[in-house]
C-alpha cells in the first residue's frame, strides 16, 4: 500500500530506509552499461568452476528465474545466456560510500545497515521539504549521479521504513503509517514481517498463530514462554511498533562490539552458540571495565557468500552480565537463522550504553534477590582475570555442552585452560569495533 504524506507529524519521528536494488549487478551495469545494461547478469563466487552460489542477479536475470542462493550450475542451465561476474567488493564499497554521502547531505542521522542499505532519520530535515520530497530528491540524485536504482520506505520507525522499502521494487517509494498496519499486514502470514524467518513462523504456526493479525493480539505470556524476551518483541512488531533509534556513524564509538571470523563454515547450532558464549564473555568484560551498562544487543551474521545481516533488540532492563548478553544473542540468532545454513562470521555489539552509576535498573523480586550475587561473581571473576590474564577463567560452555559453570585452570597458576573445542574449531581473525 502506497500512501501520500505532505507534512511532518506534529510528534514522533520520520525515518527513511534506502535499499539499493540488485546493488552489485546495478553497479556493474552503471560502470559498463555497454556490456551489462538490461542483460541477465549475476555475481557469483566460483565463476570458472561453476560450483559457486549466485550472490545476486539483475532484474533481467530474475525475470527468467535466477535467484540468490542458487547454484551457478543450475542457473546456467536455466539461463544459458547468463553473464557471470566475479565479485569486486572494493568497487561496491566505493559506490556504497557515494550513495551514503548523498543520504548524509539531507541528514547527519544515517545508520549504515550493510553495504547496500541504510536508515536516515529526517525528523530534523524540514528545511529540505516534506518527507516525500526528500525521498524523491534522494532517489533522483542517486540515479543521476550514480546511475543506480533504489527503493525508499518512509515511516515513523525503522521497522515500518524497512517494510516500506520492500513494497515497491525497483525504484519505488512507499509510505507507511502506524494506522496502515492492520489493513496492510494483518492478513499476511507471520514470515511476511521483517525479522520473522521460516523457523519462527513455523513455531508460531504450531502455537495456532498463522497471521500477523493473530500475532498482534496474541497472548504475551504464551509468546514469552516459547520465545523468551523475543515474545513481547514479536507482538510489538506485528503492531508496527519499534522504538529503536537511528545510530549515526559518528556515534558508533558509543558501542562495544566484537566479531570473529570462523575458520570454516559452521552449521551446528551448538557450536554457533559456543561462539556466541565466547563473544558475550568478551564484550561483557569490556563493558564492565568501562563501568557501563547496555540496553541494546545486536548480533552480526555473515554467510560464506559475504551476505551480512544484523539483528538487534532493546532489553526491558539494562545489563552488564554475560549470561543476559549470551542468552539474548542466541535467541536472536535462533529467531533469524535457518538451522543448518552455513555461517562464516559472528559478532555481538552492545549499544545504547549508559554509565552504570547513573543507570536506573528496575528489577522484579527474583532479580532483586539475585542481582547482588551476580555482581559479586562478576567482581571476583574480573579480579582473577586482572591478576592472571583474560583466560584465567572460562565458561564450561566454551569447552562442552554445559554453559553454566565457571572453570579455573589448576594445571599451572595463572595459565588458562585451553578450550577443547578450539583444538578442532580455532577461532581467528578477531576484530574489535
From TrEMBL:
The record's annotation in InterPro entries points to: DNA/RNA_pol_sf, DNA_pol_Y-fam_lit_finger_sf, DNA_pol_Y-fam_little_finger, DNA_polymerase-Y, DNApol_IV, Rev_trsase/Diguanyl_cyclase, UmuC
Which EC number(s) are documented for this chain?
2.7.7.7
Pinpoint the UmuC domain residues.
Answer: 15-197
Please name the CDD domains in this protein's record.
PolY_Pol_IV_kappa (cd03586)
Site residues (Substrate discrimination), renumbered to this chain: 24
Q: Which Pfam families does the entry link to?
A: IMS, IMS_C
Which SUPFAM superfamilies does this entry report, sorted A to Z? DNA/RNA polymerases, Lesion bypass DNA polymerase (Y-family), little finger domain
Q: Which reaction does it catalyse?
A: DNA(n) + a 2'-deoxyribonucleoside 5'-triphosphate = DNA(n+1) + diphosphate
Write out the catalytic residues in the record.
Answer: 117
Q: Where is this region: Disordered?
A: 412-433
User: Which terms are listed as keywords in the entry?
Assistant: Cytoplasm, DNA damage, DNA repair, DNA replication, DNA-binding, DNA-directed DNA polymerase, Magnesium, Metal-binding, Mutator protein, Nucleotidyltransferase, Transferase
Q: Where is the composition biased (Basic and acidic residues)?
A: 420-433
Q: Cofactors per UniProt? A: Mg(2+)
Report if keyword Iron is assigned. no
**Metal-binding: is it a keyword of this entry?**
yes
Q: Which family does it belong to?
A: Belongs to the DNA polymerase type-Y family.
Q: Which PANTHER family match?
A: DNA POLYMERASE KAPPA, DNA REPAIR POLYMERASE UMUC / TRANSFERASE FAMILY MEMBER
Query: What is this protein for, i.e. what is its function?
Result: Poorly processive, error-prone DNA polymerase involved in untargeted mutagenesis. Copies undamaged DNA at stalled replication forks, which arise in vivo from mismatched or misaligned primer ends. These misaligned primers can be extended by PolIV. Exhibits no 3'-5' exonuclease (proofreading) activity. May be involved in translesional synthesis, in conjunction with the beta clamp from PolIII.
- Which protein is depicted? DNA polymerase IV
